[in-house]
Design brief:
With about 525 residues, this protein is of the alpha+beta class. The chain folds into 3 domains: about 10-40 and about 280-370, no CATH class; about 40-280, 2-Layer Sandwich (Beta-Lactamase); about 385-530, Alpha-Beta Plaits, CATH 3.30.70. Helices cover about 50% and strands about 20% of the residues. The protein has helices at about 10-75, 75-80, 85-95, 130-140, 180-190, 215, 225-230, 270-320, 330-340, 345-370, 385-400, 415-420, 425-440, 465-485, 505-520, and strands spanning about 100-105, 110-115, 145, 150, 155-165, 170-180, 195-200, 205-210, 235-240, 245-255, 260-265, 405-415, 445-450, 455-465, 490-495, 525-530. The strands form 3 sheets. Strands 1, 2, 3, 4, 5 and 6 form a 6-stranded antiparallel β-sheet that branches. A 5-stranded antiparallel β-sheet has the order 8-7-11-10-9. Helix 1 packs parallel to helix 10 (about 345-370).
């Protein structure tokens, strides 16, 4: 069969180019697919963390408002039923709360006793969402209403109602009126990725706030696909359809201490866009490489074929007894074949060199893919790279058995003000300086990463008996050095030890994150150990 196969040099060279290019294209396609899967997993984790962070932010903002209205309900004027005095106090206090719009008082007959936007004694004003008022009287506990129109305008508001007690009996419901735009703006301040959507859902699956188009959708019921998912435990991800008809990958997070849920979704088109673009770029690049290689192979094949034909002609002439000078052809293999008949060996060496070049190219592709996982601003490992490095370090630590891993979750305090007052260039400079502080205050065996925005995370590798002191020393220095950056910036640090009580990295990261929020609640610019 081999003897019958008669192919020209050009055909063989073109075939070689085709076969040599195929592994590169296949490997690149496989790498893009794996990168897409990794990015999807990273985006899923990022989605869940964003939902939890937004839920904590909503809880924090509502708890501040709840504490404000509770303080008014606990005044002597409220307890003694001195309604004119309570009205005067509430009218003055409302000026100190920028989020709220007004304070109202509702009696057990579901009548509006007063509204701070109108003089005391004004009658005939309606009470919005009586169900939430009745819940306060029935349970004696705070309640938040669904959105309703303000009695004095068409603006949508929600009300946080608290009971007013007299002799252990609920006599009134004191309500803090908040524009729904306050919650919607708070969702916008979470700095979700471009195109992401978040919403707050209350009783009856009614939207209380939305990061986009809130004026259209607040007050409406959630979409049918989302309603079906709300019955499941929070924390997972699922596909749903938004109210504006956009398919999205969605997560639901429970707002702590409130009967509310935060929904965060990323459109599926955004998830698929980057990987599709990369695949198209790969195909276009492969096509260009193939065309260029074919043109080069045709030119080289003609060059080689001409010289081989010249050698054959010269050999035939010599065989006929004719004198024919055979000059150097410029092709090492042909010249070597004329003298030693060992073209097979030379060809094998050429193929080996070609394979070595292909291997180097594959390694360069792998290096480029790994570099893409770095944070472009600080050059620290991004989320996916950091988590992978920590998992690998944890495996080594578990085998050795003589050391411990400690996670430090860091969030900058006052960073938003820097961007607002000094611009994003200064903000980026602060982030770079923060990254430099973290590098300087950690050791080579430790891992430092950036999770996006103003969130950083550190994995300390410490001896089993000294991990607590090492973590305290490092956290203290970081809090001090970050505060020295200037612009009023500080940081809150949450610390969690990866013990047997934490089955996986997600658990210890969650504990460190919760400890960081506890540090913020205690006044910021400090660190807190997770319990």
């Amino acid at each position: 069969m081999i003897n019958k196969l008669q192919l020209g040099v050009r055909t063989w060279l073109l075939g070689l180019v085709a076969f040599a290019s195929a592994p590169i294209l296949l490997f690149a396609a496989y790498s893009i697919n794996q990168l897409e899967l990794a990015e999807r997993a990273s985006e899923t984790q990022r989605l869940i963390l964003s939902g939890q962070a937004s839920a904590h932010a909503v809880a924090q903002r509502l708890n501040v408002s709840l504490g404000f209205i509770k303080a008014i309900a606990a005044t002597n004027a409220a307890k003694q039923g001195d309604l004119p005095a309570l009205y005067d106090y509430a009218s003055k206090a409302i000026r100190l709360n920028q989020d709220s719009k007004a304070i109202s008082l509702v009696d057990r007959q579901e009548r509006l006793v007063f509204l701070t936007l109108r003089p005391f004694g004004t009658d005939g004003l309606p009470v919005g969402d009586l169900d939430s008022v009745r819940k306060v009287f029935q349970t004696g506990k705070p309640s938040i209403s669904i959105p309703f129109k303000s009695p004095l305008s068409d603006a949508m508001v929600v009300a946080i109602g608290v009971p007013v007690f007299s002799a252990d009996e609920v006599t009134y419901c004191l309500r803090l009126i908040l524009p729904v735009k306050v919650l919607s703006v708070m969702l916008e301040e979470q700095k979700l990725a471009e195109g992401w959507i978040s919403a707050v859902i209350g009783d009856g699956e009614i939207l209380l706030a939305r990061s986009k188009s809130s004026e259209i959708y607040v007050g409406q019921r959630a979409s049918p696909t989302l309603l079906a998912a709300l019955s499941k435990p929070p924390g997972g991800v699922f596909e749903s359809m938004t109210l504006d008809g956009v398919p999205a990958l969605t997560t639901v997070a429970q707002v702590p201490d409130w009967n509310l849920k935060v929904v965060v979704g990323v459109p599926l088109q955004i998830l698929a866009g980057d990987s599709t673009k990369a695949l198209y770029n790969l195909l276009a690049f492969g096509l260009l490489v193939g065309i260029g290689s074919a043109i080069l192979a045709i030119w080289i094949s003609r060059f080689i074929a001409a010289r081989i034909n010249f050698v054959v002609a010269a050999s035939s002439a010599q065989h006929r007894g004719e004198r024919h000078e055979v000059p150097t052809t410029g092709i090492r293999e042909v010249d070597h074949a004329l003298s030693h008949m060992s073209s097979v060996t030379d060809r094998e060496q050429h193929v080996k060199q070609s394979l070595a070049d292909l291997t180097l190219q594959n390694q360069q592709v792998q290096h480029a893919l790994k570099s893409a996982r770095k944070d472009g601003l600080t050059q620290l490992p991004g989320r996916a790279e950091f988590l992978g490095l920590v998992e690998e370090l944890h495996q080594n630590v578990s085998i050795a058995g003589n050391s411990q891993l400690v996670i430090l979750f860091l969030d900058l305090d006052g960073f938003k003000g820097i961007n607002d007052l000094h611009g994003h260039v200064t903000g980026d400079a602060v982030l770079k300086k923060t990254a430099d502080v973290l590098r300087d205050q950690t050791r080579g065996a430790d891992i430092v990463g950036r999770f996006g925005g103003d969130e950083f995370v550190i994995c300390l590798h410490a001896e089993a008996g000294r991990f607590e002191q090492i973590a305290i020393d490092v956290a203290s220095r970081i809090v001090e050095k970050v505060a020295a950056i200037g612009y009023g910036v500080g940081c809150s640090v949450g610390i969690a030890v990866w013990t047997s009580a934490c089955p996986d990295l997600d658990s210890v990261m969650r504990r460190a994150d919760e400890a960081m929020y506890e540090a913020k609640r205690r006044g910021k610019n400090q660190f807190v150990f997770s319990n």
